Amino acid sequence: MKTLILLRHGESEWNSRNLFAGWVDVALTRTGEEQARHAGRLLRTAGLLPDAVHTSVLGRAVHTATLVLRAARHEGVPLTRHWRLNERHYGALQGQDRAAVLARYGEERFLLWRRSYDGTPPPVDPDAQRALADDPRYAELAGRLPRAESLADVTARLLPCWDTVLAPELHAGRRLLVVAHGNSLRALVARLDGLDRAGIAALNIPTGMPLRYDLDDDLVPVRRGGRYLEPEAAARRAAAVAEEGRGRREGAAPGRA
């Protein structure tokens, strides 16, 4: 049996303000930091301390992973950052209020950009993208930085990380913790569970809730959909994620250890 734990970063400042973040580096809120600590305590209590941790290169994921390991009293395990685990690039929507985008463009286009597999938001202005071109985290992407991504694009750039890094470590018997983002984790869950487009559109990943997958020797889930360590709290937060842009947000207080 192989064990993979997926964790969306804790609530960020832009989560709390209902803004599209994408590849913009956004700090965690105090609630997000406590969500990360709570996740670490859950992992320790469940006996799920990881052998290795993989995150995106975005600060909110890295900070979450650091707080998780500290709270779990499990610092010192290898932590590797991958741009391929980054959140979806939301293009020109980055920094915009979800409710304002919904009001301006209507429900159909809003859901196409936010939940569908193929829908790509309007591209970010090239001038706004230049700062990323000089960021050493993206050196290997010189001249190929995305200006906007669909979930299909996220899946295409994430799968090489799965095939060449994560899957081999799981086959080697390592328990992995992957700390990433709502859309990169949606892409990974869709790959694990073999979701169709309707299933992908309905999938919502809550912040700060560890999701455990037990995998067989072929890395097929023993239980489709995995299992949240706190299923009721995860269901409430996932429902709130589905309502983002309609006046609600996901910022439910973290559970108690």
From TrEMBL:
Residues the entry annotates as binding substrate: 8-15, 60, 87-90, 114-115, 182-183
Keywords: Gluconeogenesis, Glycolysis, Isomerase
Name of a matching Pfam family: His_Phos_1
Matching InterPro entries: His_Pase_superF_clade-1, His_PPase_superfam, PG/BPGM_mutase_AS, Phosphogly_mut1
Superkingdom, taxonomy of origin: Bacteria
Family matches, as HAMAP family: PGAM_GpmA
Protein name as annotated: 2,3-bisphosphoglycerate-dependent phosphoglycerate mutase
Gene source species: Streptomyces sulfonofaciens
Gene designation per UniProt: gpm
